[in-house]
Amino acid sequence: MPTPPETPRLDDQLCFALYAASRATVNAYRECLGRLGLTYPQFVTLLALWEHDGVGVGELGARLRLDNSTLSPLLKRMEAMGLVERRRSTADGRCVEVFLTPAGAAMAEPASAAHREVAGRLRLTPEEAETLRTLTHRLTTTLEGTP
This protein's superkingdom (predicted)? Predict the structure, then answer.
């Protein structure tokens, strides 16, 4: 009878290490962002809009790697919170664009402070953080088949 292949060990799996690290990171943000009344998905949405305000919903979803069924309710909640507003594009009425409100723009400094607090808890050197970011970005783009 052939010997069965050795069962992979959980702690040896890159996928599990990435999963656990992602959960731990989001959980670290949860406390800081909770004080601001934000969830992590709302935080990253604001990050994207602080970089490029007035972006189309489709482009925003692609940037955040969220599908419409996830992004639409997220934007609806953020609109109810007074952080963003959705408007029909003046160039193409079929498209909806997302804009920061003054309240959404004003969240930049407190959210940056929350980010700095979490970054300080990581205990990574700037070089280690950059290497980790570069490698995870490469892994993501490779698996998604994007540049």
Answer: Bacteria
